[in-house]
Amino acid sequence: MCGICAGIGKNDQIAYVILGLKKLEYRGYDSSGIAFLRNKKLEFIKSVGQIKNLEKKIPNELKENIVIGHTRWATHGKVCEENAHPHLSENKKIAVVHNGIIENYESLKTEFLSDKKFYSQTDTEVFANLIELQKGKNLAKLIQATKLVKGSFAVAMLAENDENIYLAKKASPLYVAINNDGAMASSDISVFANKFDDFYILEDDEFAVINSKNVCFYDKNGKKIKKNSVFLNNFDFKEENLTEKYFMLKEIKEQPMVLRKTYFKYFAEDFFSKWDLEIIKKFKQFHFVACGTAYHSALLGAQYVQTFCKKECKVSIASEFRYGNEIISKNCLYIFVSQSGETADTIACASLVKNKGCKIMCVTNVPYCTLNKLADFVLPTFAGKEIAVASTKAYVAQVFTMLIFALKLADKNFQEQIKQFVLSYEIPSLDKKFLKEIFKFKKIFFIGRQKDYVTSLEAALKLKEIAYINCLGIASGELKHGTLALIDEDTLVVAISTEKSLKDKVESNLQEVKARGGKILLVSNLQHDIEVEFLINIATFSDYLMPIVSIVPLQQLAFEYAISQGYNPDKPRNLAKSVTVE
Ligand code: F6R
Fold it and tell me: Which of 187, 247, 289, 291 to mutate to test the pocket of ligand 1 (most atoms within 8 A of CB)?
C-alpha cells in the first residue's frame, strides 16, 4: 500500500505531484505529504486524511521544481502528521517517501542509529537516517542503505544541495516517465498522463537518478546500466468520470457492460487463438491462489475447471500458501487471481512457484502489473478501471473470465448460451421497501451451498468492508456444527439458493433457522416452499452463470447499508485498494 509520486522539471511540480497523489489515493488515504527543495534546503508539508486536506495546506504561491510526495496507508505507527511521509533524517539532509515495509527497522535502529532522535514511529524514518549515515555521494549512500535493509520498498529520495531525485526499488512497483520538460516517478503507470514520451519500469535492485534533463539507471553496484523504454500498447490514461454519486454504484451498474466486453474480447476477437491451449490441457492439476474477493472468484474458477475439465483443483489463500508446506509440482498449473496484479502475498507466491520451475497463469485486470511480468500465461479481465475499494465489477469479470477459460479448456460448445446471457442480462433494481427493516440487523449470516456458498462468502465480505457489519459467510450445512448457537430473533440469515438439486437441503437449513427465531432473507431464482420474511427474486440463467447473477443484489445491499449508516462506500476505513505489503 501507500503511493509515491515524484516530479522534477522546468514547470511547477507541486501541482503535478498532487494530481498524481490523488490518482494514487486508492493505495491508501489516511495521510499524505510532500517534500521539496527550496533554496537547496529540504522543506515539507504534511496532512492527515485525504489529499484534498494536504492541498489546502499548500500556499497558492508555492511553486517548486523538485518534489516528492506520498499518500499513506498506515503500517507502522498510528495515523498522525508525525507518521505521514516524507520522513527526514535527523539532520534534515535526506528526505524519503517509501512504499513497502522495512522488516528489520528495529534492529537497524539498535545497531546503527542508537544516537539518533526519532520523531515518528515509522520504519521509513529509520531508512532516511540509515541513508544519511552512509559514506560517499548520495546515490552510493542510497545503494549502501538498501543493502542493509530487509523487506520491500519503492523509495524516492531528495537530498539537500542536490538537484536530483533518487529512486530505489525492491518488491514494490516503481515507474519512471520522461519528456523534454522533466521526469516523473510513481507507484502506478496510470499516474502519468500521456504527455510523457518514454516510460521505464524499474526492476528489483535497480536504481534511478532523475533530473530535469535526463534519467540514468544503475545496478546494485552503482554501475550505470542501459534500460529500454517500454511501449505501452494502448494504455488507457483516461481518468474515470464519476457518473454516479459513488464509484461503487457506478461500477455495480457497469457489470452488464463488463460481461459484454468480456464476451466480445474472448469470442469476437477470438482471444484463445493466440494461445496454445494444448499445453495447458496437459497439466494434471490446477492450483488457484489469491486474496480476499479474488480468492472467492478463484474458488469459483476452481469449481468450473473441476466440473468441466474433470481436473483436480485446489485453491489457497496467498498469505497461507506462502508459509505452508505446499507440495509444489511441475505437473500443476498455478493460477494467480488478482484485480490489481500488485498484491504482495499473491506476488510472493507466484515468485515462489516460478523459482521452482513451475508454470504460472495470472488472471489480472491491470495491464503492466507485476504479476503479469512473472506470468507464462495472462488471462486478462476486462472490467476497466475499478476505483471503489470494494471490488464488484472486477469480481464478476474474474468469475466470468475463468468460466470461459474452463469451458474452452473442456472444449464445450457454449458460445451461443453465453451470448444470450450477456445480451439479456440487466442489473435489477433492489426493492427498497424492505431495506429499512434489513438495516436494523447488526448480526447477519450469509449461507449457501457449493457455488452459492462462495457467493455467501463474497456477500459477507462486501457488507463487512463497507458497512462495518460483523457478519459471516457459512456453508449452509455447517450451521448446525456451531454457528446455530448464535441464531436468535435479532439475527438475519441471508440464504442464497440457485442450485436446483440442493433446494430441499436449503429449505431444511432455513427451517432450523426459523425454529430458533432467526429472520430470513432468501435470494433465489427457485420456487421455494418456505415462508420467509424477505425475498429477492433473481433471474434464471444456466446453473454455472448464477454466481454472477446472485452476487449483484448482495453488492447493492451492502452499498445501500453503508449509505444508510452515512459511510462512504468508495473509501472504507482501514482499507486500501491495492495491498502491496504483506
Ligand atoms: C474486497 C477486495 C479485496 C481484494 C484483495 C485482493 O472487496 O477488493 O479483498 O480482492 O485485496 O486484491 P487483488 O485482487 O488486487 O489481488
Answer: 291
CB of 293 closer than 6 A to ligand 1? Answer: yes
Residue 371 cell numbers, joined: 504479476
pLDDT digits (tens, 9 = 90+) for 363-409: 999 988 999 999 999 999 999 999 999 999 999 999 999 999 999 99
Long-range contact list for 216-222, CB < 8 A, 24+ apart? 218/139, 218/143, 220/143, 220/146, 220/147, 221/143, 222/139, 222/140, 222/143
Q: Which residue's CA is minimally distant from atom 7 of ligand 1?
A: 390
Distance CA 479, CA 52 (A): 46
Q: Which of 342, 319, 333 is nearest to 284 (CA)?
A: 333
Ligand 1 atom at minimal distance to the Cα of residue 296: 10
Ligand 1 binding pocket mutation candidate from 340, 349, 393, 581 (most atoms within 8 A of CB): 340
Topology of domain 428-582 in CATH is Rossmann fold (3.40.50)
DSSP string, 379-427: EE-------SSS-SHHHHHHHHHHHHHHHHHTT---HHHHHHHHHH--P
Between helix 105-112 and helix 123-133 the angle, nearest 10°, is 40
For residue 339, give the ligand 1 atom closest to its CA.
14
340 CA from centroid of ligand 1 (Å)? 8
CATH topology of domain 240-427: Rossmann fold (3.40.50)
User: pTM above 0.70?
Assistant: yes
Architecture of the 3-234 domain:
4-Layer Sandwich (3.60)
Distance from residue 578's CA to the centre of ligand 1 (Å): 7
**Chain segment 322-354, per-residue pLDDT in tens:** 999 999 999 999 999 999 999 999 999 999 999
| Residue where the block lists cell 454519486 | 245
